[in-house]
Amino acid sequence: MAQNSESYAALDLGSNSFHLVIASFHEDKLRIIDRHKDMVRLAAGLDDDGKLSEDAQQRALDSLAKIANRLVDVPPHQIRVVGTNTLRAASNATEFMRKAESILGAPINIISGTEEARLVYLGVANDLSPEQRSRLVIDIGGGSTELVAGNQNPKRLESLPMGCVSFSIRFFPNGEINEKNFKRAVSAARQLIAPYVEQFRGYWEEVIGSSGTIRSVSKILDLQQLCDTGHVTRDGMETLRKQLLTAKHVSELNIKGLSDERRDVFPGGFSVLYALFEEMGFNALHVSGYAVREGILYDLAGRFRHR
Q1: Please, is 286 exposed, middle or buried when counting C-beta atoms within 10 Å of its C-beta (0-12, 13-18, 19+)?
Q2: What would the pLDDT profile of 149-173 be if each residue is shown by its tens digit?
Q3: CB contact set of 14 (below 8 Å; sequence gap of 6+)
Q4: Which residues in the chain show pLDDT less than 70?
Q5: What is the pTM of this model?
Q6: Which residues make Cβ contacts (< 8 Å) with residue 149, sequence separation at least 6?
């Protein structure tokens, strides 16, 4: 099949899920051609020595085999594959990447936390109105959380080692939920956030959230008519906290709007978001449908278009 020279592909090998977006551009706006997501839970495969388990590697390689079939129509030089927190941390990442690259036929770029934050901001900024407003953008991933403040361009970027998978494993072992576990998770997240509160203060007029955790919370609050569509409020978070703590185990989580695929990592992700509300002191955030994948696409297209 002939390759489509107008198409670009971004593949994000995240700690929780692998996301592929293939798109073209029309008048500088993304036109989505294809999307694919697999919940790979790569971070759950890291052992105490930082080694990625054989099972986790196999889940990832099985996902990449499906993704490779979707990339055949995209010119190789218009494909960018990035690895984030778990691949930054894994002691045997090189070995895994060798297998992964042979399946994909494309190189994998392990990006730094600040580069991940920059790409998140670029994606979200292109999803919003072009008006000049300063924004704090939050992206909660599987193993890290990116905080970026700026207007047209990012001014402050930080990547913190907390995410929905890592915090679920660490603070809700074997899926156990209770008030003590929740408070420990929130306290640990607040300690990580606290050193950066002052440097971000005054850099934003609005808060934007992207990523699966935040979109999941927004969907739940919307379905329960606790918030306007596309928003998350402090009051909504409090109501959801009470719903979370009625369960003793993730298998018992009976929260309207919570998907089965999100259930196991919801406590950790929710704790991180709750801590951000508390420590950063905002009362509401607006949810963006764009994230690091879309940022990669705009970055990639910009290079080819010399922008």
Answers
A1: middle
A2: 998 789 999 999 999 999 999 999 9
A3: 42, 84, 85, 86, 141, 142, 292
A4: 1-4, 129-132, 304-307
A5: 0.91
A6: 134, 135, 136, 137, 155, 156, 200, 203, 204
Give the whole-angstrom CA distance, residue 11 versus residue 21: 7
DSSP 271-282: HHHHHHHHHH--
Model pLDDT, residue 1: 46
Contact assessment for residue 196 and residue 239, using Cβ atoms and an 8 Å cutoff:
no
Q: What is d(CA 302, CA 179) in angstroms, rounded to the nearest whole number?
A: 47
Give the tokens for residue 69: 């079939």
- What CA–CA distance (Å, rounded) separates 46 from 96? 13
Q: Which two tokens stand for residue 204?
A: 């934003």
Give the amino acid at 245: L
Query: For residue 112, what are its two tokens?
Result: 């730094």
* 24, 7 contact by CB (below 8 A): yes
